[in-house]
Predict the structure.
Amino acid sequence: MRFHVEPCGRPLRGEVAIPGDKSIGHRALLFSLLSQTPVRVLGLGDGADNGRSAKAVSALGGRIEKDGPALVIHGTGLDGMRVPASRIDCGNSGTTIRLLCGLLAGQRFQATLFGDESLSKRPMRRVIEPLAKMGATITGEGQGADVTPPLVIGPATGPLRALDYTLPMASAQVKTAILLAGLYADGATTVREPGPSRDHSERMLAHLGAPLTVTGRATTIDTRGWNRQLAGEGFEVPSDPSSSAFLIAAALLAGADEVRLPNICTNPTRTGFLDAIQQMGGTVAFEDERHAGPEPVATLVVRGPAQPLRAIEIAEDLAVRSIDELPILAVLAARASGTTVVRNAEELRVKESDRIATTCAMLRSFGIACEARPDGFTVEGRPDRPLDPGHVHADGDHRIAMAGAVAGLVASGETIIDDADNVATSYPGFAAALTQLGATIRVV
């Protein structure tokens, strides 16, 4: 798939409904499989990644019914999962495969997980090692530095061992896998983090009645005296802040009469992008603030002409909380005054692409100086004139494709984005949303 993007000659305007948050959607599906009672999930996005988790739920014995705009998941409980009839295809979804590692670690049967070409290159040792310490059996491909899919998990011969584990780097996926395995362990399993990561799992497992406590940056699942039952009426999946970031950036760069994005998840572990924008001098208003189950939400609003932005440093906690939005923050940095520095973002190397390399290549195609570093990159802003027309190869990475398309709105001519097929994994309606706001983007 290829995007053709024309420069935007007028401010953007309109209201767009962003798809359900992908991270919360994965968890709503997979955690509901463990419930003793049916769980109603409202607001699930239609991206391919969440679809992989839904198919995994069915493969393991769950039953999914459509109920108007919602899905009702009839789970198996903790101990009722069935042996999958075949290998479970996780597609391009790193969250699906890593969470399933924790979910399957304590099962008394064997299962095999695999994915597409991109997922088959992504590192799995960091999730396998703590689960192996708990007694899980997981094998994969590769020798030396890391292990890659396909992964063969189990069977477990008895309860897993409780574990007190300190993550070498903050990772919500690894943390969640250990906590899920902890539901099948004897005693208290504790995960300690060196920095903040997304806390959707903690909120949602507690919502289902898991024996979970959070103390600072330590999260514990303690099965002693627990009745081994999870149950809950349902989850409302709020709209995805990572997807909203691209439309917010477009409105800030092209100007906005008024762009409104309702029902966006404003969980503090996900607002690093908005905090970075504020530091750069941009303004996004919060309206209609409320809670959707365990998650805070709000309508995000951008108004006014394109604003002058300034360069900042994105590092440490801010880098962790904006890790998925760093490619689009780099596009904003290309129009900011000064040099923006991104540090402590090594995680970008092991996303759908090496996002340090692909982000820098994207910006260079627009004539922007960008230097890759081992843990991030620097961007030399060019606020005084439009970007050069870009020709971006997205390398199969949805966030690079969308970031390049937004950059094309403030270029001096038509921008072409090649290899944009994987935009469907997270935001199938992205091009239509930009068009709805007044941009000109063709998909061929």
Q: What stands out?
A: The CA atoms of residues 142 and 265 lie 38 Å apart. The chain is about 30% helix and 25% strand. The chain has two domains: 3-20+239-443, 22-208. The radius of gyration is 21 Å.
